[in-house]
TrEMBL record:
This is Ribosomal L7Ae/L30e/S12e/Gadd45 family protein. Residues 3-82 form the Ribosomal protein eL8/eL30/eS12/Gadd45 domain. Belongs to the eukaryotic ribosomal protein eL8 family. Keywords: Ribonucleoprotein. InterPro entries: Ribosomal_eL30-like_sf, Ribosomal_eL8/eL30/eS12/Gad45, Ribosomal_eL8/Nhp2. SUPFAM superfamilies: L30e-like. It holds the Pfam family Ribosomal_L7Ae.
Length: 83
């Protein structure tokens, strides 16, 4: 699991709504999903990524993903946006 991609990304969409939007718009390069996030939230994103053929990477925890995104709280998911 490589969170450096998240840390080095020029553009990130953090959170369910933002990340979903980027995948639907076809501008997400890769989506990171926290393993401890609510499955009712993540299952939609997982299916969407499969449908849109976006790379999906699992992260150990919401806290780790939040930190990698540079925010103080946990994040269920984040999308790295294509430049």
């Amino acid at each position: 699991m490589d969170l450096n991609k998240v840390k080095q990304a020029a553009k990130l969409a953090i959170g369910t709504k933002q990340a979903t939007k980027t995948v639907e718009q076809g501008i997400a390069a890769e989506v990171f999903v926290a393993k401890d996030a609510d499955p009712r939230i993540t299952i939609k994103m997982i299916n969407l990524c499969k449908k849109m053929e976006v790379k999906l990477t699992y992260v150990e925890s919401m806290n780790m993903l939040g930190k990698a995104c540079g925010i103080e709280v946990g994040a269920a998911m984040a999308a790295v946006i294509n430049e």
